[in-house]
Amino acid sequence: MSDSPSSPQAPVTSVAPVAPKRRIAALDALRGFALCGIIFVNIPQTMEMFAYAGQLPGPLRLLFLGRFYPIFYLLFGIGFGIFLRSAARRSGRPRPLLVRRFAALAVLGAVLHLLQPGEVLLPFAITGVLVLLPLSYLPRRALPAVAVGLTVAGVLAGVGGLGLLPGLFALGYTLAELRVPETLGERPWRLVALGGGSLAVCGLTYWLITLPLPDVAQIRLGTTLSLATAGCYVALFLLLLRTPVGAALSWALAPMGRMALTNYFGAALLFVPMGAALGLRGSEEWALAAALGAAILLLQAVVSNVWLRRHGYGPLEWAWRCVTYWRRLPIGGPADAGGVRGAA
């Protein structure tokens, strides 16, 4: 029997969120990794340090621009799937909870947009309502084809990174429905295949970009290269978590990922005034911008670790859950950090 949200419900006890226990630690660390890459583009973009990609330094353009947001998109789709499955076990009507969840995210995004034009929380909320909610009614067997179709359509649309949003949301939701995140540690060959395939696409796409092709093709090739590079990063990072350095990476990045909403929002609260004070707006002080990003990430890594030793959720994550369930919930403590798998 299907356990999708549209299938018959088990008896419902109380409508309440899952405690932050036995989380899928690799997803938290990967989310923290994505945040680390995103800030190095967000700072110069918000500070108006470039008008088009060609003005960026080579390493920033090739390794960071458009490479980390696809990971963030995918993880949001996965989190949606995990949350919906959890909510369906606790409520006969889980989707109204999700509507409130997306509405709260839209409000946060609108506020953040005043400080950081181009932020992604508001597009996340809109796409969640328009794409993810309808997807939740589809049978599981239809999801892979829809996800792939939306992703290909996003590349062909030629509108850049946001064009990938519906497809990657759908792909993440599909992975959650197929329980792929729960088996990440059991099938490393999947990661090797993802990395090898993505690397081959990177090589082919980069070669094609060097050819004198028309702009309409170059734009779509650039989006493909961003997507393939993100695939390489995901595979490499998750494989690194299986090595001796994995514990150190998880210690630094998993708490940041558990507090991704707080850290994403908080980063703008820090780098916008600090960047202005440092004279970054309209400048070419790339090293200074990178140093500011690194300093903020170091601060967030420490604060996230310290905060989660005493609380179960980050402050914005806790507020988001309170709005979702429309009642004040306990913020939790360190004793809550070890049981049920939950979504950010």
TrEMBL record:
Keyword Transmembrane helix among record annotations: yes
Keywords of the record, alphabetical order, are:
Membrane, Transmembrane, Transmembrane helix
Transferase among keywords: no
A Pfam family assignment: HGSNAT_cat
Family matches, as InterPro entries? Bact_Transport_Assoc, DUF418, HGSNAT_cat
Question: What residues does the Heparan-alpha-glucosaminide N-acetyltransferase catalytic domain cover?
Answer: 23-130
Q: Which residues form the DUF418 domain?
A: 220-327
- Membrane-crossing ranges are 29-47, 67-85, 97-115, 121-138, 145-169, 189-209, 221-241, 261-280, 287-308
Q: Which PANTHER family match?
A: INNER MEMBRANE PROTEIN
Name of the featured protein: Putative membrane protein YeiB
Q: Which organism is it from?
A: Nonomuraea endophytica
> What is the organism lineage in this UniProt record?
Bacteria, Bacillati, Actinomycetota, Actinomycetes, Streptosporangiales
